Amino acid sequence: MDGEDEFAVFTSNLIKKLGNFIAVNNLNLKVKRGEIYGLLGPNGAGKTTTIKLLCNLTKPNGGKGHLLGKKFSDNTIASNIGYMPQETALYDGLTVYQNILFFGEVYGLSSKKIRNRSDELLKFINLEKWRDELVENLSGGMKHRLSLACTLIHEPKLLFLDEPTVGVDPELKMSFWNYFYKLKSMNTTILITTHYMEEAHHCDRVGFMKDGGLITEGSPTELLHQTNTDSLEDAFIKFSLGR
Ligand SMILES: Nc1ncnc2c1ncn2[C@@H]1O[C@H](COP(=O)(O)OP(=O)(O)OP(=O)(O)O)[C@@H](O)[C@H]1O
Ligand SMILES: [Mg+2]
Questions:
Q1: Which atom of ligand 1 is least distant from the CA of 46?
Q2: In this structure, is residue 2 part of a structural domain?
Q3: How many structural domains compose the chain?
Q4: In the structure, which protein residues have their CB atom closer than 6 angstroms to any atom of ligand 1?
Q5: CA end-to-end span of the chain
């Protein structure tokens, strides 16, 4: 028993090569069920590539991975997973509501369920007034908010959020985090990447990726102890420089 069932995310020596470059290098990542896990690391460390592997959007060159106890290549887990990409994937020519509707239909939700969920989500992302506006007319931060709503439409048990709060104003950022805590209280697992260290503090545990591998992990406080610093910014720089 390797622990595939015990963890929401479990990878063992995961490898992804992009041309001659090894983007994910023998990654061993374990995210407990119901925790908020922050994946940190410098640009190009392999965070997005890791999430794409886990969401079965690209094939690994080696290693294995399980999500919620099933192989990540198992299509039956898709309905339990939500993925918010770093680059928002919305339909500019559709309205805000039509985008939510589209994602709801992809996940096979009933029209009634989609209506109820979209009312709830539009309120949460504070875009109720923009419901019938074309996405191309939204600001960058608004598009990000809509992207999160589309990710949450089917109430996934495991969420991959790749820099979900980039360009989101501070007030809404706080409401995003309140919502993440609410999801956690309902036993949803969240794997989140961020370059905002104040957000890293909100995570139960954080892992630091560099050159495609995990070089350390622990609670935010443990990372401060490991680096003998009192800010995660300083800890980040120390890990980046390999000190
Ligand atoms: N098609 C490709 N061919 C070769 N290298 C690639 C390709 N796509 C990505 N890479 C490289 O893979 C590395 C990992 O990229 P990835 O997007 O996973 O990093 P990241 O940790 O998410 O970075 P960021 O914090 O900037 O989002 C980068 O160095 C990138 O240049
Ligand atoms: Mg990235």
A1: 18
A2: no
A3: 1
A4: 18-19, 21, 23, 41, 43-49, 86
A5: 35
pTM of the model: 0.93
* Distance (Å) from CA 85 to ligand 1 centroid: 14
Q: How far is the CA of 104 from the centre of ligand 2 (A)?
A: 26
Give the residue numbers spanning the domain of 226.
7-241
CATH number where 184 lies: 3.40.50.300
Pocket test for ligand 1, best of 48, 88, 214, 236 (most atoms within 8 A of CB): 48
Could you tell me if residue 221 is inside a domain?
yes
Q: Residue 6 is encoded by which pair of tokens?
A: 């015990």
220, 40 in Cβ contact below 8 A?
no
Nearest CA, atom 9, ligand 1: 18
Measured in angstroms, how far is the CA atom of residue 49 from the centroid of ligand 2?
7
- Is residue 1 one of the residues assigned to a domain? no
Ligand 1 centroid to Cα of residue 46, in Å, is 6
Q: What is the pLDDT along the chain (243 residues), one digit of tens a residue?
A: 466 778 999 999 999 999 999 999 999 999 999 999 999 999 999 999 999 999 999 999 999 999 999 998 888 898 999 999 988 889 999 999 999 999 999 999 999 999 999 999 999 888 999 999 999 999 988 998 999 999 999 999 999 999 999 888 898 889 889 989 999 999 999 999 999 999 999 999 999 999 999 999 999 999 999 999 999 999 999 999 986
**Measuring from atom 7 of ligand 1, which residue has the nearest CA?**
18
Backbone dihedral region for residue 126 (phi beyond 0: left; psi -120 to 50: alpha; all else: beta): left
Range 75-91 burial, b when 16+ CB lie within 10 A, else e? eebbebbbbbbbebebe
Helix axes 140-152, 111-124, angle to 10 degrees: 140
